[in-house]
Amino acid sequence: MTNSIEIKNLDLSFGAVKVLQDLNLNIGEGEFLVLLGSSGCGKSTLLNCIAGLLEVTDGQIFIKGKNVTWAEPSERGIGMVFQSYALYPQMTVKGNLSFGLKNARVPKDEIEKRVARAAEILQIEALLDRKPGALSGGQRQRVAIGRALVRDVDVFLFDEPLSNLDAKLRVDLRVELKRLHNQLQNTMVYVTHDQVEAMTLADRIAVMKGGKIMQLGTPDEIYNQPRNLYVADFIGSPSMNFLHGHLESGAFRVDDMVMPMVGYEFAAPQTADRPAVIGIRPEHVVTGELVKNAPLKFDAFVDLVEPMGSDTLVYAKLGQHSFRIRMDGQARVKEGETLEIGIDPSRASLFDRDTEDRL
């Protein structure tokens, strides 16, 4: 795959504070890459470095093979959509879409063509004569996306564009962004702290922490094979269950429970017993009739039940350890009862307790 964006040994410091540290990242032509992480992890800072809104301390940035490390934002061939709509309230939608093109002295007929195309793609043709004050939040965000779209560039940068919208609008616009990428096939880099957005939109996800990329991979890889405890804990809602114990001769022991790691493929040969942490996703725990086919069976004490419609989330105790179980929405389970559960070790993740890396 040809690289659309290359980031080499990137550093950014604000005084003595290192925000990005020796960061390397290649983004393929036409790829939808999501930068995912909690607040302060450096994801928006990295996006602003790509856009040219921040000067890097060290390293290089290439877009379409051209070194743009010190180039002005307008010279980088990018379109950017921010968290805030940043629309001109006195202008109509058409005026907002065409304003940047007029400043760039694009011919009038070309402006008309680009505005019409963006309006058609985003389904805002009927809104062109309205002003932002007469639009809903979702419509305003479409206009903000359209303003980047009319630039006719190869790379689009999105900085948490859906975070100001309500839950339903976020879902609707997320679907539209996915369709937009499928239609245009442009390179898109998208910043979010919302793992659902990341999992549903991305071709690949870069999970960030402390100015570094903890793991870069497909949504499937990030979910099923987290590289370390941080990624395992960050991905998934509710988050993964963690039990602290010891790995002893191919079996995981926690208190008086022993879990033979049947079907588990270790990342490297295991030569010694060690402190370890096993991670089990709530949705990978089976109950009811499915338990009889599970390799491992345990009794869990039900502490709290949360009906969620399509799912039922059960907070339980497995021995002395808190343990979450995702069950079917029609499941009948009561607080205070004992629930037989089944676990498949091949679907679990095992981590070294000291290094926090996947075993």
From TrEMBL:
Which PANTHER family does its entry note? ABC TRANSPORTER ATP-BINDING PROTEIN (PTHR43875:SF14), MALTODEXTRIN IMPORT ATP-BINDING PROTEIN MSMX (PTHR43875)
Which family does the record assign? Belongs to the ABC transporter superfamily.
Query: GO:BP terms for this protein?
Result: carbohydrate transport
Q: Does Transport show up as a keyword for this record?
A: yes
Provide the alphabetized UniProt keywords.
Answer: ATP-binding, Nucleotide-binding, Transport
Q: Which NCBIfam families match?
A: PRK11650.1
Gene Ontology terms: cellular component = ATP-binding cassette (ABC) transporter complex, substrate-binding subunit-containing
All copies of the ABC transporter domain together span: 5-235
Q: Does the keyword Transport apply?
A: yes
Name of the protein in question: Carbohydrate ABC transporter ATP-binding protein, CUT1 family
Q: Name one GO molecular function term.
A: ABC-type transporter activity
